[in-house]
């Protein structure tokens, strides 16, 4: 076995991930832990300052309710989310986040995040729930607060978490390895908070070759949350509810600011506005198709119908939108010129703060948005419970909001005692975004400390035999490569093992073809899902032969192993739900209609950590108290 030092760490609360939800948990838990003499430890696979989905920054905060200004109520947000997810959402969880999120945003501002201000005071809104920011350094600001509260001595960066350590049905810790030095880590904890983000590159991306790494959501979020909670035996929810974002083509620039702030139209190649021309289609998706805003998946779907009819490409009419705004100043040439300059700057800033590649592609292809429209396209599927997707763990709601069926002691606790989840890691509470994920992290962080204080779980022990077995399993890809690398003259062509990139291509290809990827026009069926599961079984067999030539490749091996479980959860849940509820995200060709009688419910699943046998179940959708 590769020669790795074993590092054992004991703590009261272990925070997994260093993203928006974890930074929220760190700030809140550190405060309450200090009051109770407890220790909090955080582990991130990268550097917290620039890790996770907000690594590159953001140009907007997409969840701000504005409670103090009386603009909106918590119920308004609950209804908005329920509607956007075609009826499938946990009101108690959405309300729990909505009543706290403004607090997180005010903290960000206090910590130095520049939020655009309107002339009369107040924030500049991109939309009803979205604020414009100069967010290039958003993550650095939020990370600094987490570090100050936790103390850097309690933060382990560049340590990749592989999986949970279980003692029977109880979770007692987590194990992983450093991606920089030969160290194997065993974390033992009295409670664990999981927020390792969503999953990207489970499906074949539109980008290829030199552009392979380009995606909207970050390729370094590889489904570790799903694998961790599944492997702990936790119940999961909404694993079929992937998110298909419509994005500026090829560089994946977001569209929110264009549709909401610049009020831009999107048209097909012949100038037809599909949102208008195809509005009759919305009747088929009642009641959700008939309210405003139209759910994100239905907005996608109307555009997809145009593309399938050969009316593509679809264009974001940036030139039209910017000229329309500037024309309001046409009587004053000086003001008009200044406005054009301002709009141009805002258009570029939107991407420079968040998706730099889109600005680079514009520059590289001589695009001036004020003169020329840009193609937009439906991207490959992502698993991101914090945006317009809903996949994640099934967690307890707050006692004062959750009906009894949804409350089991502590907010955001999974169905495994002492395990908590937030952000992309917790499901059925969509539209929380960066700010709501931070707020949910705070809610869960506080609840986890309360759990330790009230339940007083013992500090767990893990015997040496267990540690050695986990270490051997974790490092096996390195050993396999070392053992067989000289069998051929070309180390990436070897019958004894499979390298992580090749493994990922297999996964992405089968998901694209059988589970309704871009290549299959987002369409699947019972027979396709069943065939997909057969191929996933073969792929999991081959995962035993994953090999790694370095620490970096070892991380890639385990990232793809995690993706495989996200893929299986997704296919099994799409197979189980016999209807089409989210056209525009995925379409069941054999059940092309929505069926509110049979399927207006949650579909949840569990996987036995030992046998890996799956159980699918329905759960009722209940209103909050
Ligand atoms: O508009 C391990 N998001 C946006 N949110 C907004 O509020 N405004 C926007 O403008 C947004 N836009 C946007 C967004 C995201 C992206 C990528 C783009 C544009 C291009 C969404 C938010 O970013 C998102 O909702 C939150 O960040 C989700 O928070 P969280 O905590 O669930 O995930 P994370 O921040 O990615 O953090 C995950 C952490 O886990 C670490 N990690 N650590 C150890 N071991 C492992 N095995 C690990 N696996 C992962 C990561 O390093 C990271 O620290 S718009 O387009 O939507
Ligand atoms: P996106 O850029 O697609 O990630 O969207 C950013 C935010 O804008 C999210 O809150 C979306 O729900 C919202 N949004 C995007 N497009 C529209 C639209 N056409 N109508 C209403 N809300 C939208």
Describe the structure.
The model has no long low-confidence stretch (mean pLDDT 97). The radius of gyration is 24 Å and the shape is globular. It contains 18 helices and 19 strands. A hairpin with a 4-residue loop joins strand 7 (170-178) and strand 8 (183-194). Strands 1, 2, 5, 6, 7, 8 and 15 form a 7-stranded mixed β-sheet that branches. By secondary structure, the chain is of the alpha/beta class. The structure holds ligand SFD and adenosine monophosphate (AMP). Adenosine monophosphate (AMP) binds at residues 62, 127, 130, 245, 254-256, 259-260, 293, 296, 299, 388.
Largest sheet: 7 strands, mixed
Which spans of ≥5 residues are poorly predicted at pLDDT below 50? Answer: none
Distance between the termini: 55 Å
What gross morphology would you assign? Answer: globular
Hetero ligands: ligand SFD, adenosine monophosphate
Give the count of helical stretches. Answer: 18
The value of Rg in angstroms is: 24 Å
| Structural class based on helices, strands and sheet pairing | alpha/beta
At a glance:
It is built from 18 helices and 19 strands. It is an alpha/beta fold and 625 residues long.
Keywords:
binds ligand SFD; alpha/beta; seven-stranded mixed sheet; globular; single chain; 625 residues
Break the fold down into its secondary structure elements and pairings.
Layout lengths: L4 E12 L3 H16 L4 E4 L14 E4 L12 H11 L6 H8 L2 H10 L20 E5 L2 H13 L4 E2 L2 E9 L2 E9 L4 E12 L29 H8 L4 E2 L8 E3 L7 H6 L4 E2 L6 H4 L18 H13 L5 E3 L1 H9 L6 H20 L3 H9 L9 E5 L13 E2 L25 E3 L11 H23 L8 H21 L15 H15 L8 E2 L1 H17 L8 H26 L10 E2 L7 H4 L2 E6 L6 E6 L6
Parallel strand pairs: 1-2, 1-8, 2-5, 8-15, 16-17
Antiparallel strand pairs: 3-4, 6-7, 7-8, 9-14, 9-18, 10-13, 11-12, 12-13, 18-19
The site of adenosine monophosphate has 13 residues, from helix 7 and helix 9.
